[in-house]
Design brief:
The protein is an all-alpha fold. The chain contains six helices and no strands. Helix 1 (4-22) packs parallel to helix 3 (57-73), helix 2 crosses helix 5 and helix 5 (105-123) packs parallel to helix 6 (125-139). The protein starts with a helix and ends in an 8-residue tail after the last helix.
Length: 147
């Protein structure tokens, strides 16, 4: 982190967003955070300008993107996702104004985009297809049972 103020700002975001993500379960939270750290880091490394990218802001914005997008992709929509959506919008909406070019705005945008992509992968059409395949395999039908 560039300064103590930068660290404090990131901790403010992490505390609330991590608590909101925890409502989806600890195992789910760890998987999402791993995907956000790796995805955001890779995209910023490939696409970011030659500028110091420090702190955890990209992952923080990934959490914002993920938590907002889950309410869009999750079907059937659960009360938990609606409550998290409202909490994130009310509490973290001003953070979205930091997409404008200053400091490491690439991390903010890339993190948000990766967060939406992770939500789609886990709760969107791709996630539902994976759940269907898993439920079929758990029943013991395997691929032959679909024919």
């Amino acid at each position: 982190h560039a300064s103590v103020a930068h660290l404090v700002c990131n901790m403010y975001g992490w505390i609330g967003l991590a608590a909101a993500l925890g409502l989806y379960g600890v195992a789910e939270a760890w998987k999402v955070i791993q995907q956000l750290v790796i995805g955001t880091g890779l995209i910023v490394w490939v696409c970011g300008r030659s500028f110091p990218h420090e702190g955890a802001s990209g992952v923080e914005f990934g959490l914002i993107g993920f938590l907002l997008a889950v309410a869009y992709y999750e079907r059937p929509l659960q009360l938990r996702s609606i409550a998290v959506f409202v909490f994130v919008v009310v509490t973290y909406a001003p953070a979205l104004f930091s997409f404008f070019p200053f400091m490491s705005w690439e991390s903010h945008i890339c993190g948000f985009i990766v967060g939406v992509a992770v939500a789609f992968q886990r709760y969107g059409v791709v996630g539902k297809y994976a759940e269907f395949k898993l439920s079929i395999s758990q029943r013991g039908y395997g691929a032959a049972g679909l024919l």
